[in-house]
Specification:
The protein has ten helices and 16 strands. The chain is globular and about 55 Å long. The strands form five sheets. The chain has a seven-stranded parallel sheet, with helices on both faces. Strands 14-11-16 form a three-stranded mixed sheet. A two-stranded antiparallel ribbon has the order 1-2. With about 375 residues, the chain is an alpha/beta fold. Bound molecules: nicotinamide-adenine-dinucleotide (NAD). Nicotinamide-adenine-dinucleotide binds next to helix 1, helix 4, strand 7 and strand 9.
């Protein structure tokens, strides 16, 4: 069980001067006095507060609920650019941008840790409009990181992606695979991972970069779920085809070197992801920073997912086979063993669970 602790500065140094710098290679005139942290236990009445940045979005809203169910205070910070007020219902929601350090500063003073979900996340758009991606996912995200470093928060969880691997040299993909993104979206996520590594080394920030595979599914309550506009993810697109919102499910190529010719992906339930985030936070109280894959280790082809949707929903899925899309690797499946061993975590929900919960949400959100 996680021991609730709060890190409190033991000196009155201004926080701007409190960053720990590795002294070995730093010239004397650049040395910053080290700020020692002592650990004080929170009283029973106090909960650790986590700033859920991007918590009005799909994955962040699930993480906020799991945090609350584990006894944490979750404060949501979101500019609602792709998020929804209703996904943050029941939470303290601050509407603001991650680039707005002045807005973030007083909120960070109330927090013990940050989970950073906020980003633009459309691969295709990142190719046609890379500026939008570099500005939000790197420049604005660095402003958030600097605001964190100006506060006393030293635990940071980052939503990265398997897109940092690009075309993997080996599947299942381990964290040792070279990180060679093949689109600007993946490149911006890698840039931020690199910043975390450097800040971690230089300033003592503790972080986990979680490289998600394909997030899917919805909370069992049916009150929150996947809501992207436009939608590009497979399962909601299949539902749209079932409900006549689109003529058919467009499959981009059935001539890949996979058993049925369609691309294979690793679908992970959003609440399995959310649970890993809480464990990641707790892991950082006792261990060093890390980057971990979050996936199930099991891949399904597009046709297999469509067939499973037909089985779970008892609806026929109209399918149209189109040409391949540029830049789609045949198979992306995680080796999740690092997260399993470091966090004692394992994705518990099946593809059936993913489809059942997503369908339940899709019908309510109709
Ligand atoms: N959905 C997936 O399958 C998947 C896979 C890999 C990685 N990820 C990453 O997970 C994170 C969450 O993805 P999601 O599917 O929940 O996306 P989402 O669009 O539903 O959520 C992102 C949230 O961040 C907010 N946001 C964006 N820019 C902001 C800014 N500048 N300031 C404040 N808030 C801002 C949006 O309003 C939105 O609520 C993203 O970082 C994404 O890159 C998602």
């Amino acid at each position: 069980m996680f021991r609730r602790v709060r890190l409190a500065p033991s000196t009155d140094l201004p926080l701007a001067a409190s960053l720990r710098v590795d002294s070995c290679n730093t010239p004397d005139h650049l040395q910053i006095p080290a700020l020692k942290y002592h650990v004080r236990e929170k009283t029973e009445e106090e909960s650790l507060a986590v700033l859920v940045v991007g918590g009005a979005g799909y994955i962040g809203s699930h993480a906020a609920r799991v945090l609350r169910s584990r006894g944490y205070d979750a404060i949501i910070y979101d500019n609602l650019s792709t998020g929804y007020r209703e996904l943050a219902e029941g939470f303290d929601l601050v509407v603001g941008d991650i680039a707005d350090s002045a807005k973030l500063a007083p909120i960070l003073r109330r927090c013990d840790a940050v989970m950073h979900f906020a980003a633009h996340a459309y691969v295709g758009e990142s190719v046609t409009n890379p500026k939008k991606y570099y500005h939000n996912n790197v420049t604005a995200a660095l402003a958030l990181l600097d605001a964190v470093m100006e506060s006393r928060v030293r635990r940071f969880i980052f939503s990265s992606t398997c897109a940092v691997y690009g075309n993997p040299v080996k599947v299942p993909i381990t964290e040792g695979n070279p990180r060679q993104p093949v689109n600007p979206y993946g490149a911006t996520k890698l840039a931020f991972e690199n910043a975390l590594e450097a800040y971690g080394r230089a300033y003592g920030l503790k972080y986990v970069s979680f490289r998600y595979f394909n997030a899917a599914g919805a909370d069992d309550s049916g009150s929150i779920g996947e809501k992207h506009e436009p939608e590009t993810h497979l399962i909601p697109l299949i539902f749209d085809a079932i409900r006549g919102k689109r003529a058919a499910l467009e499959i981009f190529g059935d001539d890949y070197p996979t058993p049925d010719g369609t691309c294979i992906r690793d679908y992970i339930h959003v609440n399995d992801l959310a649970e890993a985030h809480v464990l990641g936070l707790e892991y950082l109280t006792k261990a060093d920073s890390a980057a971990m894959n979050l996936g199930t280790g099991q891949g399904y082809s597009v046709k297999e997912v469509a067939a499973k949707v037909e089985q779970v929903t008892e609806h026929k899925v109209p399918i149209h086979i189109g040409p391949r899309r540029a830049g789609d690797p045949a198979e992306l499946v995680a080796d999740p063993s690092l997260a399993e061993s470091l966090l004692k975590w394992r994705a518990r929900r099946s593809l059936d669970d993913i489809i059942r919960t997503a369908w339940n949400w899709a019908q309510k959100a109709r």
